[in-house]
Design goal:
CATH superfamily of the largest domain: FAD/NAD(P)-binding domain
Strand content: 5-15%
CATH architecture of the largest domain: 3-Layer(bba) Sandwich
Shape: globular
CATH topology of the largest domain: FAD/NAD(P)-binding domain
CATH class of the largest domain: Alpha Beta
Oligomer: single chain
Structural class: alpha/beta
Radius of gyration: 20 Å
Helix content: 25-40%
Strand order of the largest sheet: 3-2-1-4
Bound molecules: iron/sulfur cluster
Largest sheet: 4 strands, parallel
């Protein structure tokens, strides 16, 4: 597809997806991805990168896609992002990189998020999503990461790449935080989240689940007895905003956060 419009995302037909909870969007095929990537102007001053919070070299990875060099595209993305399959799905690209893409001035921006997702999914399907980074000397310094949500996963991955000995502590039985309990399966499949977490394990991140920091270990114990030299605390922003309307304290009235937390771990709504 050329001109000002982006390639549409293939998705389950409405009459099919209304009978299942599987992911609605199906992802670009290689042919669509290459076609979409060829829309990119490879700008000398890439506005898209200024909109990316982690400063991925967007033109470079898109150029690699346009030349069908999908492995190279993944390596470029993974220099800056540890979670491309997740970010390609749930990052608000429309307010970040795509919002400032120059093609958006007269038409639709390059579908940067869809291309990021394609690159990650294609590599996963081919079993080639473990990117080798240059061997960094181990620093022999232990860092604790408290929490298993996106900021902690990012922090843990980046520190591991820098040579730190990272242990991530998650209170629940699986890491992922809001990615696991806050986003429904049809929007972000949980096996995608867990697979991407496994990539962090392959980078050397140790993950300890069912550990409640403050109870299982205190911060003081981590520092003074367990040998950690630094602690990153990313326990999330889970407090809901209430509307202050009559009835919101009644039984069976839940905040969105609580509802999603109850419904997501195993797909069943759990009533106390
Ligand atoms: S701003 Fe848009 S067209 Fe320019 S390099 Fe970035 S993605 Fe490509």
């Amino acid at each position: 597809m050329r001109g000002g419009m982006r390639n549409p995302m293939p998705e389950q037909p409405a009459d099919v997806r209304n009978k299942n909870f599987e992911e609605v969007t199906l992802g670009y095929t290689p042919e669509i991805a290459v076609d979409e990537a060829q829309r990119c102007l490879n700008c000398k001053v890439p506005r898209c990168m200024t909109g990316c919070p982690v400063n991925i070299d967007i033109p470079q990875f898109i150029h690699a896609v346009s030349e069908k060099k999908f492995d190279e595209a993944l390596s470029i993305i993974k220099q800056k992002s540890n979670l491309p399959a997740i970010c390609g799905r749930v990052c608000p690209q429309e307010n970040q990189c795509e919002k400032v893409c120059v093609l958006g001035i007269k038409g639709e921006p390059v579908a940067i998020g869809r291309l990021e997702r394609f690159v990650a999914d294609h590599a996963r399907a081919a079993g080639k999503d473990v990117v080798k980074f240059a061997d960094v000397p181990k620093k022999g310094i232990k860092v604790a990461v408290v929490g298993g949500g996106p900021s902690c996963l990012t922090c843990a991955g980046d520190l591991a790449k820098m040579g730190y000995d990272v242990t991530l502590f998650e209170a629940l039985h699986k890491a992922g935080g809001v990615l696991m309990y806050g986003i429904p399966e049809f929007r972000l499949p949980k096996d995608i989240v867990q697979h991407e977490i496994q990539q962090l394990v392959s980078l050397g991140v140790h993950i300890m689940t069912d550990v409640v920091i403050g109870r299982t270990f205190t911060l003081h114990e981590l520092l003074n007895e367990e040998g950690f030299k630094a602690i990153y605390v990313g326990t999330g922003a889970g407090l809901p905003h209430f509307l202050h309307i009559p009835g919101e304290n009644l039984n069976a009235v839940y905040s969105a956060n609580e509802f999603l937390t109850r419904v997501n771990p195993d797909g069943r709504f759990q009533i106390p």
